[in-house]
Amino acid sequence: MAQFGASARDMQNSLPRGIRVKNKAASDRQITAEQLLREAKEIQLEDDNFKPPKQIITDPEELAEYRLTKRKEYEDLVRRVGRFNMGVWVKYATWEEQQKDFRRARSVWERALDVSYRNITVWLKYAEMEMRHRFINHARNVWDRAVTILPRIDQLWYKYIHMEEMLGNVAGARQVFERWMRFEPDHQGWMAYVKFELRYEEVGRARAVYERYVQVLPSVKAWVRYAKFEMQNGDVSRARGCYERAVDELGEDGQTEEFFIKFAEFEEKVKETERARAIYKYALDHIPKGQAASLYARFVSFEKQHGDRQDIEDVVVSKRRFQYEEEVSRNPLNYDAWFDYVKLEEEAGDIARVREVYERAVANLPPANEKRYWQRYIYLWVRYAVFEELDAGDADRAREVYRAALKLVPHHAFTFSKLWVLAAKLEVRSKRLDAARRILGMAIGMAPKDKSFKAYIELELMLGNVDRCRTLYEKYLEWNPANCHAWIKFAELEKTLGESARTRAVYELAISQPVLDMPEALWKAYIDFEISEGDRGRTRVLYERLLDRTKHVKVWLSYARFEASPLPTGEDEEEAAGGEEGPRPPQESDDPQEAPAARAQRATEVFSRAFKGLREGAPDAKEEALLVLEEWRRHEEAQDWRPEGERAEAVEAVAKKMPKKVKRRRPVRDDTGAEVGTEEYWDHIFPEEGGSAPHLKLLELAYRHKRQKMGEDA
């Protein structure tokens, strides 16, 4: 043994010597676990994006070789991860099923069950495969094994029964139900059995199932369902017997609020009001008060229907009235309590008392003339007026309520357009249009708001008074010339009247305003109008004017899409020739149906201008320039009318302008400006940037800065 062994000294000499670390201090640049995980994830995503090429099989030998290769891959995969990843088995069996080799598919499923017979998904997919290919006996065998091994999984029983029922094997389905019931499932399982028997009009069998149900699961839910079943079959005595048996058999467990409510509702339904009253009283005597809130409310409702209504309501209302009086006396400015108090009196139906409560409520003015204090208070007046108009049927009093509310609001500080509008609508419903106009006129005169103008314009528009609508729009825009929505609605009104010249004048006046709240919406509406008019020249001029104001990438893209698309047909020939406005200046192309080549050329020019403008005017806007290039490339690819060679050349020319996507690092600084680390980001390097020599970078940046400075001075 000595000749094959080695001494301790020899082994020590053969081992590599340990390397001594001279500097054990921490490195200045640390790599965190987060960075390692992020890089690993990115590498994994890059690997996942790889797609193998498609393989075309032409003869049986290649098919056999392909199947052999796939089976070897699956076998290796299940050998490695099959113990803890059942999805691999499912994919394997599904692939065998797709190859129509059902014997092998069954073998795979059986092997999967040997690995994990408690996996429900495997059983379900195994049986579904057999059912899908009409192997009924095989499927029945799988279901039978599944429910035998996993009898507590309800889904397996449901699927098994569904298959038998779909095959018309009612007796077999009933046998499966009987096997299932021996395991005493939950309420849903028993109800499924009952519904199965009722589908085939086996009322006696269903009753027998219910008898077993209430014995296995003695609960309120089971007995109530049994009673409802008897009631649906018209047997009142059996239904009452179910409730009475439940009281005896459940004992204290059955004395619940739900059970007594159901029992009383049953007696009420069969017109046995005395029995129902006795049940309610018995329940209220035996159930703790804290657990009988719904029962008490239901008893009160029952007495309202069948008892001495006045006495019951007086008791309930007086009790709640006392509570509300305490609340509003503690805090008179608690408007929510006043709302509840008013609702109580409205339900009681005493109009005089309702008016008294409303008057007391509105007498509590907010503590300060700030709108946030008045927002809740003003709804008391609104509800007061609605009550007078709808419940009391007194429009004159409702009008007085609105008048008093409008006098009370300090319109010099703030106003509520809802009050003005509701008061005007009341006059409209009363067919007093002059009064409605007078109210809305006072609204826009004393405290103009958008809602007041919109309501007034809507009223006049419904009445067909176009001249009044124009006057109102003029007043509206004089008050708020920055409201783009008002300008657009004014122009749409003129457009619906067929007044193209007026519409165009409104839009021109709108875009000339120095301040606008949504200029992009206004310009879009103007451009859409010109497009709908079929005037390509005017639309092009609009886009050019818009580009003089902004160089946003969305404007460039919209301009290019417009040039590439045909205009809608059916425009007015007279208006295209001049119409009411007289002859227009000639444009480069005024034909709404230009040739595709001309449209494509114009769109290409727009794309070229957009890219050049973005690169020169805003070099840092690389994302926007990339959007332009991508849209440009899609445009060139969509030109099917071109020869294949020309289209490929155009696409290649755009592709040459595409930037490269590179990953870079930049420092991360905290609030104090100190560097706390680095972060990675994606940057785009355009060809003109990548081709510059490193020593010319500084000169290029200086030249660009000088150009920007000269542009600002100009």
TrEMBL record:
It is found in: Nucleus. Gene3D superfamilies: Tetratricopeptide repeat domain (1.25.40.10). Residues 73-218, 322-481 form the Pre-mRNA-splicing factor Syf1-like N-terminal HAT-repeats domain. Residues 566-602 are annotated as: Disordered. Keywords: mRNA processing, mRNA splicing, Nucleus, Repeat, Spliceosome. GO terms for cellular component: post-mRNA release spliceosomal complex; precatalytic spliceosome; Prp19 complex; U2-type catalytic step 2 spliceosome. Pfam families: HAT_Syf1_CNRKL1_N (PF23233). Transmembrane segments: none annotated. InterPro entries: HAT, HAT_Syf1-like_N, Syf1-like, TPR-like_helical_dom_sf. One of its GO terms (biological process) is spliceosomal complex assembly. Belongs to the crooked-neck family. Involved in pre-mRNA splicing and cell cycle progression. Required for the spliceosome assembly and initiation of the DNA replication. PANTHER family: CROOKED NECK-LIKE PROTEIN 1 (PTHR11246:SF3), PRE-MRNA SPLICING FACTOR (PTHR11246). This is Pre-mRNA-splicing factor Syf1-like N-terminal HAT-repeats domain-containing protein.
